[in-house]
Amino acid sequence: MTKFQTPTKPQTPSSARLKSAALAAALLLAPAAVALGALPAAAAPAPEQMLARSSAKLQWLDKVTARTSTFTIAVGETRTMGSLRITLRACKENPPIEPPESAAFLEVVEMKPGEQAEPVFSGWMFASSPALSAMEHAIYDVWVLSCGNA
To answer: In the chain, what are the domain boundaries?
Structure first.
């Protein structure tokens, strides 16, 4: 041994067995911890497993004027709010035996006078987790409240 090497304590068979037993126990208990909610699970349900609805109730906010509006929009309909054109492509909700959740697939385009239309948002928004898939815009906010059959 040179003067720069530090002596290491040899691992005894019993300490090696303890480490491998602890690792095996952690691997065996991890699925149970996920099932009991000890570890983070998926944040939102998969839209494929939800029930299709014909309309959505949305809320819109103009951050400059602090004006809000709640409105119902049908699937396939386009609604103009301020300089935004909001199109609802789908709205789904959990079955009654599941925790309440509504999800809407929205396409939002900003129409500025004299300029080309600019896509602002396209994707699923979840009512219970608005920040999960939020529309990023300096002036407007849009979020899902619920789905229905209007």
So the answer is: 12-41, 47-148
